[in-house]
TrEMBL record:
This is Uncharacterized protein LOC106179220. The chain crosses the membrane at residues 292-310. Gene3D superfamilies: 2.40.160.110. The keyword Chloroplast does not apply. Keywords: Glycoprotein, Membrane, Signal, Transmembrane, Transmembrane helix. InterPro entries: Lysosome-assoc_membr_glycop. Residues 1-30 form the signal peptide. GO terms for biological process: establishment of protein localization to organelle. Its main location: membrane. The keyword Membrane applies. It comes from Lingula anatina (Brachiopod). It is found in: Cell membrane. It comes from the Eukaryota.
Length: 340
């Protein structure tokens, strides 16, 4: 009986340990859930294993080269987060989850200095960005150049700090590609009001076999609202997709931005509170709910295991007591026989 009890205790203890391990795993999973969601969202967004970084050089290396997706001859297949809208990009069969969030690539920070406010940075922008720019080649075919803006990029920024509107322009590939974000200010807060992509396909070395033209594209829609309350900064770990005319796209993640800033605390984006994007909040809430459910289920199982062990112990005591009551009469009968 003791051996059986030990065996059962070993099994149940092992179950408890497994459940506790499962709980810890679920907590780690919820902590990394934003990264996994981002990976699934952008997996398929990138098509190739080599990328050209948006630096200020006109040359490439075998490790970091630009990607040219070639002529567009298929309908849209990619979707925005949640599948709510088509991305409109033709991806080859080979896909790669690019090293943005999940690859540990730190975001790059840009500032727009307001010289009228004694050197305070009115716009502080931090992000990873993946650009897809359409252009026309010499055969009049539509092609797309794909490149990544990362922390070690040599891209630079300039901007202007107005009272009602402010902008910051990121200049890449020796100003061959210029990316502008325009923010507006009202009593409701600060929001991304517009954005433009302007690039010269004759320059930069990223537009292979280009016809040679200057392209200027305006923002058409954004997959996630980029806006903050007055005095706050906006942050979003998960990807946001900005769509432009002619099918151009920019995927942004690890985004932090503050505009109309009047605080010199650049490191903390003006030092104000953070406004978190909707997708980050939803993922965080999902992780919390999942953790609570795991804790609840683990608690139930632990209680059941304890009750089970108590019942086994009681049963063992009862059986031992019965064995003692059975043994006493036999001994008394034996003694009586000897006396006779």
């Amino acid at each position: 009986m003791v051996i059986i009890l030990k065996s059962k205790m070993t099994i149940t203890t092992g179950c408890v340990q497994c459940l506790l391990a499962l709980l810890c795993f679920s907590q780690v999973e919820s902590h990394n859930n934003a990264q996994s969601v981002a990976a699934r969202t952008l997996n398929g967004y990138i098509a190739s294993s080599k990328f050209r970084k948006a630096d200020s050089l006109g040359t490439s290396t075998s490790k970091d080269i630009y990607v040219n997706l070639g002529p567009v001859d298929k309908p849209s297949q990619w979707t925005a987060p949640g599948g709510s809208a088509p991305m409109g990009v033709d991806a080859p069969a080979k896909t790669l989850a690019v090293g943005m969030i999940w690859g540990g690539s730190p975001p790059k920070t840009f500032v727009s200095e307001d010289v009228t406010l004694r050197g305070v940075d009115c716009i502080i922008l931090q992000l990873n960005a993946l650009f897809e720019l359409p252009y026309t080649d010499r055969k009049n075919l539509t092609r797309k150049a794909l490149f990544l803006l990362s922390e070690d990029s040599g891209a630079r920024a300039e901007g202007e700090c107005g009272s009602e509107a402010q902008f910051i322009t990121i200049m890449m590939f020796n100003k061959a590609v210029n990316y502008t974000l325009i923010f507006s200010n009202s009593s409701d807060g600060v929001r991304l009001a517009n954005s433009t992509l302007r690039y010269n396909t004759r320059r930069g070395g990223i537009f292979h076999n280009a016809k040679g033209e200057t392209v200027s594209l305006h923002l058409t829609w954004v997959s996630a609202k980029i806006s903050t309350a007055p005095g706050a900064f906006f942050k979003c770990v998960l990807p946001s997709f900005l769509h432009y005319e002619e099918g151009a796209r920019v995927a942004v993640d690890n985004l932090r931005v503050v505009a109309f800033n009047d605080n010199n605390d650049t490191e903390h984006f003006g030092g104000g509170p953070a406004t978190t994007c909707t997708q980050d909040v939803e993922v965080a809430e999902y992780g919390v709910i999942k953790t609570y459910i795991s804790i609840f289920l683990t608690g139930i199982v632990v209680v059941l295991v304890i009750v089970y062990l108590i019942r086994i112990k009681i049963k063992q005591r009862r059986k031992t007591s019965q064995q003692l009551h059975t043994t006493v009469p036999i001994n008394e009968s034996s003694n009586a026989t000897q006396k006779t």
